Amino acid sequence: MYTTYHLTSAQEVNTDILDAIKATFKSKAITIIVEETEVDFELSAEMKTILEERLQEDESTYLTGEESIKQLNEKYGL
Questions:
Q1: Residue 49: inside a domain, yes or no?
Q2: Burial, 21: exposed, middle or buried (Cβ in 10 Å; 0-12, 13-18, 19+)?
Q3: What is the reported pLDDT for 52?
Q4: Rounded mean pLDDT for each run of 10 residues along the chain, 78 residues in total
């Protein structure tokens, strides 16, 4: 089991969070990993290439996000 806490600042870490972790995991062994959230997102060259290819696709064959998810659910049972 795992739990993720997303904080906007390290200053938000308080005893309430520690108490919640203790209550959830009780006497089980746990690992705590702290990582800095990267706010600046940059597209890789590969991502840019894929986006450029998609821009060149025939618009009449576009699917909405909802239709894409529906088809994935039907095909893979997600």
A1: yes
A2: middle
A3: 93
A4: 86 92 93 84 90 88 87 88
Longest alpha-carbon distance in the chain: 58
Residue 63 located in a structural domain: yes
Tokens of 54: 């998609």
Task: Give the HSE-up count for residue 35: Cα atoms under 13 Å, Cβ half-sphere.
Answer: 6
Q: What is the pLDDT of residue 63?
A: 84
DSSP state of 19: H
Query: Domain for residue 65, yes or no?
Result: yes
Q: Does a structural domain hold residue 51? A: yes
Q: Which domain holds residue 71?
A: 45-76
